[in-house]
Write a structure and sequence with these properties.
By secondary structure, this protein is mostly helical. It folds into 2 domains: 64 residues, no CATH class; 192 residues, Multidrug efflux transporter AcrB transmembrane fold (Up-down Bundle). Helices cover 65% and strands 4% of the residues. It is built from 8 helices and 2 strands, in the order αββααααααα.
C-alpha cells in the first residue's frame, strides 16, 4: 500500500492531470486510507473532468491497481461528473418511457393512434420552448442583472430532465381534459369539426384559469437565491403559458381539424379496446 501511494505521488506534476501534494490519512483503525489527489483545473471544468477520467482509467490502475489494492474515487469533482454522466445516460430512457406511457394511456382513453402521436409531438413543442428560453437566458448569461444571478455558461444537469417530466405531466393533464370534451361531443353525434369547436370553447376558461395560477406560482422561483430555482422560475411558467395558449388554443384544434375523422383512426387489431368508436358516429 505504501509503495503504491509513493508511486502515485511521483506521478503528480505541475502540468499533469494530478497535482501535488498527494496526501494519505488512515481511517477505520488503519484498515483503510483516504488519499487526497489534487486535480488539474478548478474542480468543475473540462480540465478537471479530463483529469478525473485519466485518474480512474490510467493512473490508479497503474499504481494502486497493480498493488492489488481496492479503491474508489469520490469527491466533489467525481460526484458532479458521475451525476451528469448518469443523467446523460438515463435521460433517453426516461423520455422514451414517459412518451410510451402517455401514448398507451391516450390510446386506451380515446381509441385512437393518431391523437396520442399528435399530443406527444405538441407537448414536446412547449418543452422545447422552455429549453430554448433557459439556454438563452442562463447558458448565454443574459438578464443576469435583472434576475440577480451569475452565469457559468451552462445549464444545471438535472434541470432539463426535471422540466421535461414536470411539464409533460402538467400539459398532459389539461390536454386530456380538452380531448375528453371533444370526444364527448363526438360521441353525441357532432361532426369532428363541431366537436372540436365545442370542446375547445367549453374547456378554454378552465384551462386558462389553471394556466394563470400555475404561471403565478412558478414565477415565484425567480426570486429565489439558487440559480437552479431561477431556471425553473423562467422555464416552467413560460412553457405553461405557451402550452395553454398557442399549443392548446391554436395548434391542437388546427391539427385535429386538418386531420378530420382521421383523428379517430384505430387499426382493426385494436378494436377490442373498450369504448365507443367515434368513427362510426355520424
Amino acid at each position: 500500500m505504501t509503495s503504491a501511494i509513493t508511486e502515485l505521488g511521483k506521478l503528480a506534476a505541475a502540468g499533469g492531470p494530478i497535482r501535488e501534494p498527494v496526501t494519505a490519512s488512515a481511517v477505520a483503525g488503519g484498515r483503510a486510507l483516504i488519499v487526497g489527489v489534487p486535480l488539474a483545473g478548478n474542480g468543475g471544468d473540462t480540465a478537471s473532468y479530463n483529469a478525473l477520467i485519466q485518474l480512474r482509467d490510467q493512473i490508479l490502475p497503474q499504481t494502486l491497481g497493480r498493488a492489488g489494492v481496492s479503491y474508489a474515487v469520490a469527491g466533489d469533482t467525481a460526484t458532479s461528473h458521475d451525476d451528469a454522466s448518469q443523467l446523460s445516460a438515463r435521460t433517453p430512457l426516461v423520455l422514451a418511457v414517459v412518451a410510451a406511457l402517455a401514448f398507451c394511456l391516450l390510446l386506451i382513453a380515446f381509441r385512437s393512434v393518431v391523437l396520442p402521436l399528435v399530443s406527444i409531438v405538441l407537448n414536446l413543442l412547449s418543452v422545447g420552448a422552455a429549453y430554448g428560453l433557459i439556454t438563452l437566458i442562463f447558458q448565454d448569461g443574459r438578464l443576469q442583472g435583472l434576475l440577480g444571478y451569475t452565469g457559468f455558461g451552462a445549464i444545471t444537469p438535472w434541470v432539463p430532465l426535471f422540466l421535461f417530466v414536470f411539464l409533460f405531466g402538467l400539459s398532459m393533464d389539461y390536454h386530456v381534459f380538452i380531448l375528453s370534451r371533444i370526444s364527448e361531443r363526438r360521441q353525441r353525434g357532432d361532426t369532428t369539426t363541431e366537436a372540436i369547436t365545442a370542446g375547445i370553447s367549453t374547456s378554454a376558461g378552465v384551462v386558462t384559469s389553471a394556466a394563470v395560477i400555475m404561471v403565478a406560482v412558478f414565477s415565484i422561483f425567480t426570486g429565489m437565491g439558487q440559480v437552479e430555482l431561477k431556471m425553473l422560475g423562467i422555464g416552467l411558467p413560460a412553457a405553461v403559458l405557451l402550452d395553454a395558449t398557442v399549443v392548446r388554443g391554436i395548434l391542437v384544434p388546427a391539427a385535429m381539424t386538418l386531420l378530420g375523422n382521421r383523428c379517430w383512426y384505430l387499426p382493426r387489431w385494436l378494436t377490442w379496446l373498450p369504448g365507443r368508436d367515434p368513427r362510426s358516429l355520424a
